[in-house]
Every structure is written in C-alpha cells, then in structure tokens.
Design goal:
- The complex is a heterodimer of chains A (112) and B (115).
- Chain A is mostly beta strands.
- In chain A, 0% of the residues lie in helices and 56% in strands.
- Chain A is built from no helices and eleven strands.
- In chain A, strands 2, 4, 5, 9, 10 and 11 form a six-stranded mixed sheet that branches. Chain A has a five-stranded antiparallel sheet with strand order 1-3-8-7-6, with no helix packed on it.
- In chain A, a hairpin with a 4-residue loop joins strand 7 and strand 8.
- With 115 residues, chain B is mainly β.
- The chains are: A mainly beta (112), B mainly beta (115).
- At the A-B interface, strand 4, strand 5 and strand 9 of A face strand 5, strand 9 and strand 10 of B.
Chain lengths: 112, 115
C-alpha cells in the first residue's frame, strides 16, 4: 500500500541545535517533494521544493535532501530558534495537476 | 514567493445560509487549484481539485452539491458552502500551483463558524 510517514509526531530541541525531520514514503514515485511550515490557525507556508534528480537543496538555514533509493527526505534547520517552532509538513508531488500527498506533520518545539 | 489570497479570513453565519470563499493567485496563473479543510490538530484533508473552465473533481465522501466549486479564471476559484450546518464549521484552505516553478502555495485559510 502507499504510505507517507513523518517519523516524529513531535520533536523538542534546544535553541542553537540543528533540527532534523524525516519523511519516508512507500510505493510512490514522486517527481518532486515539497516542505511546508504551518502555524496554528494559518495555512501552510511553502519552504522548499526538491526535484527527484536533486540530492540536496538549501535556503538560508534550511536544507533538504532527497534520496529516491531510500525513498526518504530529510529536512534540517540549522541554528534553530524558538521562532522556528511550528508544524512541518512534507508533501509528495506526483506531477501533473495531481494533488500533493501530505504527511501528518512533525510539531517542532525549539526551547530557549 | 508567490502569493495566494483568501477572502474572507473568517466568517460566522447562521445554520442554513450559504457562504462563499474566494481564493486568488495574485502573481501567477493557476490552471489548477485545490481546496482543503482542516479540523483542529488534524491533518489537511483534500476536498476537491478545481480546474479552470471545467468541473471540479471531488474526493470521496465530499458532497459536490454541498460544496460548490467554480474556477472561472486562471486566478480565481470559489468554494460555496451551501445550506451550512454546524458540522461544516472548519478551517478551509485553498492552494494553487505555479505552472512554471511547480511550487504549490497555500492561502492563509478561512475559519468558518456555523451557529
């Protein structure tokens, strides 16, 4: 069966450390993978898109990796800050005009 | 990044009334938009895929006569909740895909409360 899993429902880390969130999928062949941040009562905010032929992508303190052999994406926030506390969603993009397939999200808390 | 707007951001209505929510892509054209609903502390739930100039594709269990979707232009899709009832109270979010970058952007959401 097809599955997408974000391994931790919640993750607590100390300010200044690197947060690493995991997204694994089974029986999908995504063309892209997208990561979002969602704060309570708000719509998801787009962070990064990585293509199937890209291994890594960076944007400021964010880094995403995509391993199509392992069927896994890792999302890193370096030098984390309390303002980074939010729910982070990974989404498989199967291409065309198909809807994104979302994981359940990881709630990250960065403790000062 | 690209911007998707939603209006209104919140609405309170009486049971039995209809409510229209607008979703606009402000700086790109979107042939496809998506409508989601989200209950507190739960995941996004896809309701329908809205295609410009054609009928929307609804997910299983979503009543198309209750949730009317119109995608009249490349920058505007509307969701009308007809004869709303308290159980329709939820957070409704639209998204649009940029056909050039393939990035998908979400609106800020509309909080609907039906009394």
């Amino acid at each position: 069966s097809q599955k997408i899993e974000q391994n931790s429902e919640a993750l607590n880390i100390q300010e200044g450390k690197t947060a690493t969130l995991t997204c694994n999928y089974t029986n999908y062949s995504p063309a892209y993978l997208q990561w979002y941040r969602q704060d309570p009562g708000r719509g998801p905010v787009f962070l990064l898109l990585i293509r199937e032929n890209e291994k890594e992508k960076r944007k400021e303190r964010l880094k995403v990796t995509f391993d199509t052999t392992l069927k896994q994406s890792l999302f890193h926030i370096t030098a984390s800050q309390p303002a980074d506390s939010a729910t982070y969603l990974c989404a498989l993009d199967l291409g065309g005009n198909t809807p994104l397939v979302f994981g359940k999200g990881t709630r990250l808390s960065v403790i000062a | 990044g690209a911007v998707v707007s939603q209006h209104p951001s919140w609405v309170i209505c009486k049971s039995g009334t209809s409510v229209k929510i607008e979703c606009r892509s402000l700086d790109f054209q979107a042939t496809t938009m998506f409508w989601y609903r989200q209950f507190p502390k739960q995941s996004l739930m896809l309701m329908a895929t809205s295609n410009e100039g054609s009928k929307a594709t609804y997910e299983q269990g979503v009543e198309k006569d209750k949730f009317l979707i119109n995608h009249a232009s490349l920058t505007l899709s509307t969701l009308t909740v007809t004869s709303a009832h308290p159980e329709d109270s939820s957070f409704y979010i639209c998204s649009a895909r940029d056909g050039t970058s393939f990035e998908q952007f979400f609106g800020p959401g509309t909080r609907l409360t039906v009394l």
